[in-house]
């Protein structure tokens, strides 16, 4: 069966498949260090941003995230500290910036705990000091897996127990300046990892390993999916 060699990413024009880049260096790769993959895509400032687990994009050294302008690949930042220092799982555009979530602890030259934002020219953390981003008691498992914009805020799901300095059970929200949890008078977030987020109707839907929502005194049984509705 015929086809094209496409390294972890390809494009479809309505009638046929094409590579993203040309020759053996199309797409993304790891230089043989591990099996590469692409986990997230987003369009920002007229370019396609690609995140995942790779160290090269079109033959250019690119640490876990790169951008494609329709003709060639480019990095996010320059030199050895371009990109981030570990896997990217999720991308979303919020407040005219690109938000990047994953397993990393550094973005460019700054400390960024599993989530960072790119404004087109430089990296910034979500929060200040060591408590920027998200964290948990198990650093090896801590990660951001999903991002979604809902009711004017960025919702962040993953495996964590704290966002900034705020206790947040596996999901939190960022309003552009500070973190807050999804709390009710009797609970906070969910009881296990959030792997996917989507807005449908007037609600935010969460999918993952969770079996309880509103984790706390009065939890709500939720078989791997839950619904959060904003109320003033």
Short description:
This protein is mainly β and 232 residues long. Helices cover 0% and strands 48% of the residues.
Description:
By secondary structure, this protein is mainly beta. Helix content is 0%, strand content 48%. The protein has no helices and 29 strands. It has a 4-stranded antiparallel sheet with strand order 4-5-8-9, with no helix packed on it. It has a 4-stranded antiparallel sheet with strand order 10-11-14-15, with no helix packed on it. A hairpin with a 4-residue loop joins strand 8 (65-68) and strand 9. It is globular. It starts with 9 loop residues before the first strand and ends with a strand.
Poorly predicted parts: none
Q: Count the strands?
A: 29
Strand order of the largest sheet: 4-5-8-9
Q: Which structural class do you get from the secondary structure elements? A: mainly beta
What is the succession of H and E elements? EEEEEEEEEEEEEEEEEEEEEEEEEEEEE
The 3D shape can be described as globular
What are its keywords?
232 residues, mainly beta, four-stranded antiparallel β-sheet, 0% helix, 48% strand, globular
């Amino acid at each position: 069966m015929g086809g094209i060699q496409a390294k972890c990413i390809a494009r479809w024009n309505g009638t046929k498949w094409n590579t993203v880049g040309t020759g053996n260096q199309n797409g993304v790769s790891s230089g043989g260090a591990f099996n590469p993959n692409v986990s997230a895509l987003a369009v920002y400032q007229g370019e396609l941003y690609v995140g995942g687990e790779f160290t090269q994009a079109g033959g250019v050294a690119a640490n876990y995230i790169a951008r494609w302008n329709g003709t060639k690949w480019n990095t996010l930042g320059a030199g050895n500290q371009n990109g981030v220092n570990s896997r990217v799982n999720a991308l979303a555009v919020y407040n005219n910036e690109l938000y990047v979530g994953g397993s990393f602890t550094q973005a460019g030259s700054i400390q960024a705990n599993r989530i960072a934002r790119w404004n087109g020219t430089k990296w910034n953390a979500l929060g200040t000091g060591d408590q920027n981003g998200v964290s948990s008691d198990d650093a090896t498992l801590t990660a951001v897996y999903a991002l979604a914009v809902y009711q004017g805020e960025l919702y962040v799901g993953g495996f964590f127990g704290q966002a900034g300095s705020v206790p947040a059970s596996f999901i939190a929200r960022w309003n552009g300046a500070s973190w807050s949890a999804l709390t009710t008078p009797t609970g906070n977030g969910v009881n296990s990892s959030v792997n996917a987020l989507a807005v449908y109707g007037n609600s935010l839907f969460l999918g993952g390993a969770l079996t309880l929502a509103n984790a706390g005194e009065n939890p709500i049984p939720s078989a791997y999916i839950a619904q959060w509705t904003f109320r003033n």
